[in-house]
Structures are given as C-alpha cells and as structure tokens.
Design brief:
- By secondary structure, the protein is an alpha+beta fold.
- It has one domain.
- The chain is built from one helix and three strands.
- The chain has one helix spanning about 50-85, and strands spanning about 5-10, 25-35, 40-45.
- A three-stranded antiparallel beta sheet has the order 1-2-3, covered by helices on one side.
- The chain starts with a strand and ends with a helix.
Length: about 90
C-alpha cells in the first residue's frame, strides 16, 4: 500500500524534431505524498504506473476503513456518556 496520489502529465523533451514539439507530450507519472508533515513528489517509471496506482488505491481504501472505525468508536463513546448520565 502507498499513501498519496498518482498523477499523469505530459512533458516536452525540448528536441525540435520530436513529436512532442507539435503534438502531445511524453507521458510522465508522479507520486505525491506527505511524510512527517513534508510533501514529497517522486517520479514513477511508466512501467510501474499501473502497480503504483493499485497500491495507492489500496492505501486509500485502508485510510477510508480506518476513518470508518474511528467514527464508529466516537459514536460509541457518545452513547456511553449519554447512558452514564441517566439516573
């Protein structure tokens, strides 16, 4: 699993005779994530893009599941406090 987001952009290599000078650029993949409060961006080789995308999706699913558990625990806490106050 990986945190962050995977993005695809197009870059131009700068060679005048290359197709990217007049048409679509070369695909470039980057993984952006935060570690210890610092944002990082790393290039991802094109042949890794599909696997990295799957790992990012798995990381996001885990984060969503953890948020759901934390929300449920908070609701249980609120209910327990309400029940305790009743005489």
């Amino acid at each position: 699993m990986l945190p962050g987001s995977l993005t695809r952009s197009e870059t131009r290599c700068g060679r005048p005779g290359c197709h990217c000078a007049t048409g679509p650029g070369h695909p470039a993949w980057t993984l952006s994530f935060t570690v210890k409060g610092r944002k990082r961006t790393e290039r991802v080789p094109q042949e890794w893009a599909e696997e990295v995308g799957q790992r990012v999706a798995a990381g996001r699913a885990l984060q969503d599941a953890v948020r759901d558990v934390l929300a449920a625990n908070a609701e249980r806490f609120v209910l327990a406090r309400k029940q305790r106050r009743r005489p």
